[in-house]
Structure formats: structure tokens, C-alpha cells
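Input (structure):
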């Protein structure tokens, strides 16, 4: 039924699988019935005459790509490049070399010959290092296209026309190197529906649909919905283009350190029912790594297997789990426990990301204190469950070790700000002394979590990108030590007040006061400039 059924692996948000792990993932995918692996590589591949492309980021060399390509092909898995040709040049534009190529934010400057010379070099590299002649050319989420430097040079232009003109140039370059591109479809829908993608009853105008180059297929991406009817409507709208269609679902690996497994099941089961109903032949399950790629893909092996079986029309969960255990010698129920750091309530499976929010929440500023106090997440019990599963996990024990140590840290840190403010305002020295002890224990557990997380990263990924985790987690420990010192100073009478603890707290999100789903480090750690 399926021509391609694969996984798209994010290599661009700091974590780049080392060759051993990449080969292990290919083996696992082949075992589960997948026949494709897309490497999402914004700037993570070597390009001749572009030394700053992926510089100091762990990019795959041409030699490494050829080795992975041959390894995958020998196992019946096609290695497909998944790149960007318009937006999402987030990290390259940090370097002066690429700033002159940008329109606004991380979007390339359309209608400039230097832009297309640059894109030609990208395709030349792909042609040399991949045997596949499929390519995902990106083109998604270019919300400000034509509204930056382009606007200054050309004035306001019809953004459909700009997008289509650029797409035609990219498609021509792809064709020059023998590639058949597919692209994320959202920009056509957003421009037709005032910025929205998932809009009921939306139809991209016929005159726009007709301008999509014949050699470009569209990819409808959706990881968010639990109603089959939403997928049905969006697939029908895509089929109006009369082009080859790809569907991209999601195995939720991009919400901090832990997977969101239950929501993966809840969203991908109706999605697979819909693609079967509509005869979609090309499917990719994305594994993004937003804001640091803390969660390794192996945390969701059981979810990937379940999705593949849903796509075959098998929905008997008991049977699927028995099959998975027979294949991997590992309990799917145990792997599901890796989600625990992000579980606020057993009855709720979407939206929450408390472990990252509360890990980086400042204990003196209290941005999430109200939500944390109301949630009362049982991190101690979670840690015990993970420790028990770790003993049964064999080669995957390292995954459970990391999540266990995270939960043991959160057992002390999640309510540390609440307890600090309460003790300070009580005026009771014994309460302050008890809180100071909690700070010291939290510092110790931060070290223990860091050691487990570093071991996991080193096992799975190249070393590049971990410097960010060192800065973030080192900041957590340093801030704990600094706050502990200030509490001691206050307790000893050396400081007469702690001004942060005098502030009356507001919820982080006034419209959603129980919000614990922030996944962006700089938005969690402080309201000040970072």
C-alpha cells in the first residue's frame, strides 16, 4: 500500500546522532517495517565552498553521509535528504557569511542571484552524497517572506507570486541534479487563510495550485489533532492540487527531556485511519528536536512500532505490544514510563511539559510557582517506577537512568520556589534553615542528573551541541548555589531583605494560570534579556 513509510529525524537542533546510533536506528526502523529515513538537516551536511555551513555544529561530512547511505540501502531503507531552501536558516544566520542572503529573520532573500548560487551548491552536495533522488526542500513557516529586506528593495509584492517564483527556481535546481522534491505545504494554506494552516473548509485558489511546479509533491504535516475528521478535511484539500501527496505525522520527541508518548498514540491513531481511507502512499513520522533536542529517538521506539501497525490497519493494542516485545525484548509498557517527567495528571495527555518548565524555573522569581503548587506532581513516585523499569531494560537502561535522575531532581526542585517564598514570609528561622538544606540537596541532584544526561548524550550523539546543555544546567546549579547563599546571608542578619521574594507573584500566563508547557529555555528562565 505504501511506497514510502519512514521517519524524519531532526539533526539540526543541536543533537546529531553519531554513526553508531544512526545505524542502530536504521536497523530498528527496518525491523519495524519502515523503508525510509529522512535526515532533517538545515545546515548539518558538508557543502563544498561553504565552510561556515554547519560550522562547529557537528554536521555530517560527505564521507559519513555516504557510509550511512550505503548502510541504509543494504537494509532496504532509503536515506533521503530533508533540507531547507527558504526559511529555518536559524543557526546559519548567526554568522555574518549568511546574513546578506536573508530577507527577514531566518528567511532567504528571494530573487537574488547569490541566493540561487548558494542553493545550487547545496543540491550539488546532496547529489554527491545521497543515492536517493528524493529530497524534501522545506519551504515551511516562512511567515515574514517578502516583508524584510525584500520589501525594502522591491516594495510590497503579492506573496503568493514571490513564493511561487522562488519555488520554481528551487524546483529547477533540483531537477538539474536529478531530484524529485517534496515540500511542506503550509505556506500555500497560510497565505490563503490569513496565516492559519489547519482551517476547516480551506481551499487554495485554483490559480495558485496550478502554479506549483509539476515535479514538486506536497507534504501535509499534522501532529496535533485527535479527530479523524480534521485529517480527512486537510487531506482532501491537499488532493485538490492534483500532485503526489506525502503525509508527515509525529512521534513527539520535541517537548524537553521526555517523550510525549500518550499524545503520540492519541494523534497518530486517527491520522493513520485517515491516510488509509484516502490512499496516501507516502508517510513520514517526524521526530523533531525543538530547543535543544534533549530527547533521543530511541525513547519512542514503541510508539513508532504502534504507528506502523496502525497504518497497516491493526489497532489491537494488546497484540501490538506483544509484537513489539517479541521484536525488541523490551516491554512497551516500560518504555511508556519514560514520559513520566512530563505527566501532570494520568487523565491528561496533551500540552504539559512540566519537567523542563520547572527545571529551569528560577526559585526566587516564581514564574511557575502557582501552577507547580496546584499540580503537586509526584516526582518521587515517578522516580521509583523508572528505577524499577531500568532494571528490566537491558541495553536501553540508560534512557531510564536519565529520566529517573531527572525525576529525583524535580522531587526537590519543582516546589523549591514555593517553599522558599513560604519560609521567607513566615519569618521563622527553622523553616528557612530547612529550605537551605533543600537547596543543597537540589544542587547535589543537579549534578547527578547532569552526569546521567551527559552519558546518554555521549552514547547517542556527537559532542557538538552539548555545550548548550552545559550552559543551561550549569546555570541551574549556579543559581541554586547563589540563592542558597543569599538565604544564608539573610538568616545570619547580613542582608535585611530579599527583594525578589517581596514581589507578589503573577501567573506566567494569566489566561492559563496552570500552564506548565513552556519548551523554550529563554522564556522559562527569566523575563529579563537573555
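Output (sequence):
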Amino acid at each position: 500500500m505504501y511506497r514510502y513509510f519512514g521517519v524524519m529525524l531532526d539533526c539540526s537542533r543541536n543533537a546529531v546522532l553519531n554513526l553508531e546510533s544512526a545505524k542502530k536506528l536504521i536497523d530498528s526502523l527496518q525491523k519495524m517495517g519502515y523503508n525510509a529515513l529522512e535526515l532533517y538537516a538545515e545546515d548539518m551536511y558538508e557543502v563544498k565552498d561553504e565552510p561556515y555551513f554547519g560550522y562547529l555544529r557537528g554536521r555530517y561530512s560527505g564521507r559519513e553521509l555516504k557510509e550511512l547511505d550505503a548502510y541504509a540501502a543494504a537494509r532496504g531503507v532509503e536515506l533521503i535528504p530533508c533540507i531547507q531552501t527558504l526559511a529555518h536558516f536559524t543557526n546559519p544566520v548567526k554568522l555574518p557569511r549568511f546574513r546578506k542572503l536573508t530577507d527577514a529573520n531566518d528567511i532567504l532573500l528571494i530573487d537574488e542571484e547569490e541566493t540561487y548560487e548558494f542553493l545550487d551548491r547545496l543540491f550539488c552536495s546532496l547529489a554527491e552524497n545521497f543515492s536517493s533522488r528524493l529530497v524534501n526542500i522545506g519551504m515551511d513557516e516562512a511567515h515574514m517572506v517578502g516583508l524584510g529586506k525584500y520589501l525594502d528593495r522591491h516594495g510590497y509584492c503579492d506573496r503568493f507570486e514571490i513564493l511561487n517564483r522562488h519555488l520554481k527556481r528551487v524546483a529547477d535546481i533540483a531537477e538539474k541534479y536529478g531530484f524529485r522534491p517534496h515540500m511542506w505545504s503550509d505556506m500555500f494554506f497560510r497565505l490563503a487563510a490569513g496565516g492559519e494552516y489547519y482551517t476547516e473548509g480551506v481551499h487554495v485558489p485554483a490559480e495558485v495550485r496550478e502554479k506549483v511546479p509539476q515535479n514538486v509533491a506536497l507534504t501535509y504535516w499534522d501532529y496535533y489533532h485527535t479527530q479523524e475528521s480534521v485529517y480527512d478535511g486537510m487531506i482532501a484539500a491537499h488532493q485538490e492540487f492534483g500532485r503526489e501527496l506525502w503525509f508527515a505525522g509525529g512521534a513527539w520527541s520535541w517537548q524537553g527531556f521526555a517523550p510525549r508518548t500518550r499524545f503520540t498514540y492519541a494523534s497518530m491513531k486517527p491520522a493513520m485511519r485517515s491516510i488509509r481511507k484516502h490512499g496516501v502512499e507516502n508517510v513520514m513520522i517526524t521526530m523533531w528536536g525543538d530547543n535543544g533536542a534533549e530527547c533521543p529517538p530511541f525513547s519512542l521506539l514503541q510508539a513508532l512500532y504502534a504507528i506502523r501497525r496502525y497504518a497497516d490497519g491493526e489497532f489491537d493494542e494488546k497484540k501490538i505490544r506483544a509484537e513489539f516485545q517479541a521484536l525488541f525484548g523490551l516491554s512497551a509498557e516500560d518504555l511508556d514510563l519514560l514520559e513520566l517527567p512530563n505527566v501532570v495528571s494520568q487523565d491528561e495527555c496533551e500540552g504539559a511539559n512540566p519537567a523542563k518548565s520547572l527545571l529551569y524555573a528560577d526559585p526566587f522569581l516564581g514564574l511557575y510557582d502557582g501552577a507547580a503548587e496546584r499540580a503537586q506532581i509526584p516526582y518521587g513516585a515517578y522516580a521509583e517506577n523508572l528505577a524499577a523499569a531500568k532494571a528490566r531494560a537491558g541495553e536501553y537502561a540508560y534512557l531510564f537512568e536519565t529520566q529517573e535522575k531527572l525525576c529525583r531532581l524535580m522531587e526537590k526542585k519543582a516546589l523549591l520556589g514555593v517553599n522558599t517564598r513560604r519560609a521567607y514570609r513566615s519569618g521563622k528561622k527553622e523553616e528557612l534553615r530547612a529550605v537551605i538544606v533543600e537547596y543543597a540537596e537540589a544542587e547535589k541532584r543537579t549534578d547527578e542528573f547532569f552526569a546521567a544526561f551527559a552519558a546518554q548524550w555521549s552514547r547517542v550523539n556527537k559532542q557538538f551541541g552539548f555545550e548548550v546543555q552545559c550552559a543551561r544546567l550549569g546555570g541551574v546549579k549556579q543559581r541554586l548555589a547563589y540563592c542558597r547563599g543569599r538565604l544564608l546571608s539573610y538568616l545570619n542578619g547580613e542582608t535585611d531583605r530579599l527583594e525578589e521574594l517581596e514581589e507578589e507573584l503573577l501567573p506566567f500566563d494569566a489566561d492559563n494560570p496552570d500552564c506548565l508547557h513552556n519548551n523554550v529555555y529563554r522564556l522559562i528562565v527569566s523575563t529579563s534579556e537573555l
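Notes: The CA atoms of residues 196 and 363 lie 37 Å apart. The longest strand covers residues 4-10.
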